[in-house]
Amino acid sequence: MAEALLQATAVSRNFGGLRAVDGVSLSCETGRVHAVIGPNGAGKTTLINLLSGDLAPSAGRITYKGRDITGMPAHRISRLGIGRSYQRTNIFPEFTLWQNCWLAAQSREASSLRFVAPANAQQSVRARTETALSTAGLEAKADTAARAVSYGEQRQLEIAMLLAMDPDVLLLDEPLAGMGADESAYVIDLIRRVAPDHGIVLIEHDMDAVFAVADTLTVMVDGVILESGRPDDIRDSARVREAYLGDELGGAGGDGP
Amino acid sequence: MVNAPSRGIAAALILLALALALVPLGGDKYWIKLVTRMMVLGIFAMSLDLLVGYTGLVSFGHAAFFGLAGYVLHLISPDDAAVNMLWALPACLAATAAAAAVIGALSVRTRGIYFIMVTLAFAQMLFYFFHDSDLAGGSDGAFIYVKPVVQLGDWVLLDLGGRTALYYLALASQVVIYAGLVVMLRSPFGKVIQGIKINEHRMRALGYNVYVYKLVSFVIGGTLAGYAGFLFASIDGFVSPELLGWQESGIALVMVILGGMGTLFGPLIGAIALLGVEELFRDRAVVGVMAEHWQILMGGFVIAVVLFLNNGLGGLLVRLAGRREGER
Prior knowledge:
A: alpha/beta, 2 domains, disordered C terminus, B: mainly alpha, about 5% strand
């Protein structure tokens, strides 16, 4: 078995009386895509927020490369090598795509308390910026303001920024949401391409995409894990069918359009 | 992230600097002093634009640093001799930087309306400290009887007691500080604070410790305000608690808004416009009896600029001159 990069053990998060995530354990290994599915409100995004440090868990433990990162602030977790994308586009609209990716690439430098040389002067940061843009297929729009590109391209930018951070773990929160068919296909292919060198946690509603890329599949309902295992086993699980997948799975399992 | 001024803006700014350089040749003492005040307040407003327009920190206590530097200058100036700027200026700047570090460390943790209130509260504390203590004349204020000089041995290089000398020092300071901030805003630090202004949450997720960057920006802005305060106290040779008060902070914000937030040169124009229009509205020959009530006219002017110009006078200039596109 591959080395466990990121490991959550029995993590919970309460919002007032609501237990959004309840005793969830999940692991993520280099070269593997761990998809998390479940209906809206199942706690998937909260789980990502716990892994990325945007939220601190109410209980449980999270380790990364064997190090306890539970409750660590988001910026430190990010610098350790855990990058996330957002379900709702979370970019810098006034900046060009290049500048958006530059900010992501620059974040890996030891410090940005540098006041004199122009930002674009450092070759290594520039190279990371441009590699990320071209990997995500956005180099043609590099100098366009992020607010001026299509929604699908903004979604691609989210991923490009993630790649520019050069993380070991990618936490992808519905990367395909709102994308057209061509863009989706491109991003699914992109996930496949980067998967061998990264540990990936993927939240996605698009079942075709999930079954196309996932090595492990976890189904969450009401904050708890209903089932977790190989995608084929999950597809065949009566419990999952009953609780959640229903017709959606039937469509994905058959020869849908 | 378009910080480098476009060609049109750069040309306009060079023309403005040349025009300013010609003012003392007219020799009118009143005008020299008025324009000196415009330029110094312009530096003060520009230092606030770094916080408001580029870092997203709407400070309502920026006058704390402006006034504090003036008071420090008063306290270290002997009554019967000029203080040497070569050590007096660093001392004033160090004091304001230290004050900005302390106030900033406690206030940049807060956001929005809370940040406005916390910075206001700190500035009012300083206001009342100088207002109520005997340290420097209390509410009456205090004089700097002999203005600072730059002196090497017995050789006086620059005497701020001379109107023209102070005028050109203010003009040169504007140019140097503006150019320095343009360079800084294009550096990694500059890009990072602008990212924080637009999307602080995302910057954190990218791995930036936004607290540190906001604090450093706050200290830089505060120290530059201190520099402006040092010059301002040297104009009249007088400091009073009002220099630290919320009205002074408010005037700086009005200058920034009038001139255009996030344009850097805008606040320089905003300061000229605000003081220039005040002169106009106080002139009976221009506005008749309304000169007695010039504040009403001023209110109307500020409202008109905010309502009809998108991002102030600087914003107008940017639209006329065009932006520099595709900068990386």
